[in-house]
Amino acid sequence: MTFAMIDDGDNGQCARSRPERPREKIREGLRQRRTSGKSHPLLIQLPKNLANKSDSMAEIPLISDVGVMATNDQDNMVMLEVGPHRDTWRYCVERQRLAERSEWFRAMLLGPLAPPPSTPPPTVRLEHVEKRAFDHLLRHLHDEPVNFQSVTTARATLDIAHQYLCPQLARLAVKYLEANLTSSNVLEVLQGLSLYAGSMASSISKPETPSAPPAPGDEAGEIAMACVSLLGACMTLIDSDPLTVFRQERFEELARDEVADIAGRDSLELKQEGVLFTALDRWAASECRRRGIEPTPCGKRTMLTDEIWFSVRYTLMTDKEFIEGPMASGVLTSKESAFIVSKILGHHHDRLQQQQQDATTGPLSRLCSVPRGSSTSVHRKLKKQKNGKSEREENRKNRKKECASQGQRACASLGNCLVRVLACVFD
């Protein structure tokens, strides 16, 4: 297909231009196409200087088999203007063909609110759609190959595939993103992804809860399944390299739920809990600024719940790391800081009993001293298996000893019987 794309930000020059040919060659090519039975192009290139001249439209080979747009063809055409103002790409497309491939386009182009036919074709503006992502969508709907060139465009294409309910395109974008996922772009891919996964996203944090496959024809469910796969790949990568992820500025742009999901993961290969606290502190300060609030310690504390703040495993820090980091930030109260310092130093004085009682019901009850990381869980599993194996070996040895002692007792009893028999005989 050829594209009717005009980049308004480039002085009206077409993003893709067709070689100019004499009118006779154009008409001859159209006659040959009509006689050979080949389908006509779905999208055409429309020079900007002719876009508003109805008398020049006959010179542009739109989709008519004879090179001149018929009245019914005019009624079927619509101009799509994609992208922000002064930075748009324009497409002249067939309403009916797009409506056949997408329910969303059916409602937009043929529904009650569709623009009426006109000459030149009416314009539908899509200002909040990424241009290159929309370009991939049109290519896919017209059965043309989609070749992604960057993670940013592929992620935007996944957004538009979700918006226009196109599961095949979503799977293509997910496949590319999974193949090109790195620690430096994982947050870009992750941001907003859980919204597409919907209720299936819980299977990432709770693998023991299986999710049912989507019903046949459930396009939203198919997209959600693809996004769940991508979400799992993102979380696995974050687990393996949390230091790089937490130090990125994009962490401050995540949603609160996304921050909570990451901070609470037991599988993070994180040896410095202070890095996580610093990331949470930065996120809270950015959230204060987004809301027009001064990022004071009290203001930052209210931006995140106690569950998130205490997902940081403070007791795994050294006393110096805690005092110079979380304690100095002022986010924690003096009572909380004193209790945590006492836990780090291993103090168990009587004067701390009341604090320990308060810790069973307040935020301090969320303190965790178990190291993170998949290696820890594997170590526990191996230790459990080793303990089970040792127990089985010990039981086996005990059974052998018991059998040996029973044999000895049996032999002794038999010997005693023989002695009695012999004594009776000789008597």
UniProtKB/TrEMBL annotation:
Comp. bias intervals (Basic residues): 378-387
Region Disordered: start-end pairs: 1-38, 351-401
Domain of life, source organism: Eukaryota
InterPro entries, alphabetized: BACK (IPR011705), BTB/POZ_dom (IPR000210), SKP1/BTB/POZ_sf (IPR011333)
Pfam families for this protein: BACK (PF07707), BTB (PF00651)
GO annotation, cellular component aspect: cytosol
Compositional bias of kind Basic and acidic residues: 17-31
One GO-annotated biological process of the protein: neurogenesis
Name of this chain's protein: Uncharacterized protein LOC107222126 isoform X4
Organism whose genome encodes this protein: Neodiprion lecontei
